[in-house]
Amino acid sequence: MKVYISATLRNFFGKNSQVEAPVDTVRKALAYLISTYPEGEKVLYDENKKVRDFIQIYVNNKKLTVETIWDATLPEETEILLLPAIAGGAPTDAPVESLISDERRKAVSFDDSEIERFGKHLMLRDIGVKGQKRIKAAKVVVVGAGALGSPVIQYLAAAGVGTIKVIDFDEVSLENLQSQVIHGTRDLKRPKVASAKDKVKNINRNIDFIAEKEELKASNIWEEIEGYDLVVDCTDNYKARYLINDACALHGVPVVFGAIYQFEGQVGVFNLDGGPCYRCQYPSPPPSGLIPSCAEGGAISPLPGIVGSIQANEALKLILGIGEHLNGKLLHIDSLNLTSRILKVERNCNCPICGNNPTITDVEEIDYEDLCGLKAKDEVPVEGFSPEELAKKIDNGDPMTIIDVREPHERAILRFPNAIVIPIGQLVRRIKELDPNKDTVFVCKQGKRSELAINTLREAGYTGPLYNLKGGIDAMKDIMFTHEGAWL
Amino acid sequence: MEPKFSKIVSSQMESAAKKAYPCECCGILVGKKSKRGEIEVTEIREASNKIQGEQETAHFSIDPLFLYNIERELESRSLEIVGFYHSHPDCKAILSDEDIKYMVPGLVYTILSVTAQGVMDVKSYTRDL
Description:
A: Ubiquitin-like (UB roll), Rossmann fold, eight-stranded mixed sheet, five-stranded mixed sheet, 18 helices, B: Cytidine Deaminase, domain 2, six-stranded mixed sheet, globular
């Protein structure tokens, strides 16, 4: 039979285009070829005697896919084609380049105490003195000094990041201490950035720490992150996440994203080297109130420690330019069942911010309150009572039905007396339990889910008067507790 | 040794990469190899990417029979296939693991890094046996 050798492979077979092999199977033909041209063996087979990936064998213009027909007897006029497989692909796990240039690394030096302090990094082959210098040269913004920010800020400081800016508008409250381990009892009512600064200065007073007690907005975000290498998103709400993503995507600043909910957490890296952004994965936020935030949904105490530590680890790997990283991936951790998965995040060609034809070119064009459904919609205003108004109505004995749409375990914390309990998911099914001739007031923890409940009922065609408890039971509890003879 | 591309060839490759974006483009480099190993690329043949759908943005594959036909056609013109080119949309012009796996020793593999803004980088690689 004839063996045709592609010009691309001919150099290894005596530059012949065609070889006449006096055999009757594919296997024998290849063996004949190698015995005639020994140097061809290395091209055809790898070290394990497997045909190399780049070799394709065709028999009479048909691709030979299974090795079993290698031993089938073929007629004499058979022609075998030896062709290259031409394939490849863009790197999915391209080696990361360090975010810190060599010039900046070289500008850094260490004193003796730093050599001692960072000894455990210096002894790692992948970090060493060069890597530690990159860490010291790095400038990182951490947005949020709460549950996720606590481990992120402390580990970045301990690892030796030279410049850390922390942005948070909030003050420390008692409920924060369950998971926000950067703050202590002495810090109650202090700005979170102040106690974060104390902690960081206590770890290493040479760190350049910038504390910004303010809320990030479209108007100020760029001036806050400009000149920084990396943003670690430790926020707990969609408005901030989209704002951070959009500003960073527009200016090419990578983001290490983290989020927690009850027992589960997510970590991802966005806007790195043309990789996807947060909007590629989540083009728009869920309707306001549907997904409770961490503050509303709760989280087990060590969970932010796990997720935040992974964020800090990703941030350091990006600074160092080492290892596998979560670019274009989302790590999902379930701490209750101890499982984790890595989901792939594809770049979205139609992404409004990083796609082929971006429609968003400036964060100031976007109303993030509106995007996240935080603005009261003009077309369907939900009527509501303030806690004071509702308390007065209850005192007066006004006729009304109160519906508590919270989940059973939430009611166990604080019961709303005389309320009918209908979790939000069952509402439409149980619509008949409501009396359209009576005022109906909806309550939940923070007044968002109850608003969603009212809109859901309206969409389902319910016509009776519906009211929302503004601010939810959280806003009501102080009033009711101080009220003598209160229901609560 | 760095292959030489004529101006026309370079611009043809670049426009193919831009046209295919965000998917990968691929094709064959045709030219001459001198005795001393100098490679000159004089023309390209655009190939259709056999990979369609979602994978198309990060993978390419050329039908070997397409190459076979071109090879036959070139025999009479004392030209030969000297390598292949393909694009890496939104990715650097570096070899991926998959690229390395399919590299035929001695041939030129040219990679174009392309973004929405255009072709950012062009690099050529060869592999020894």
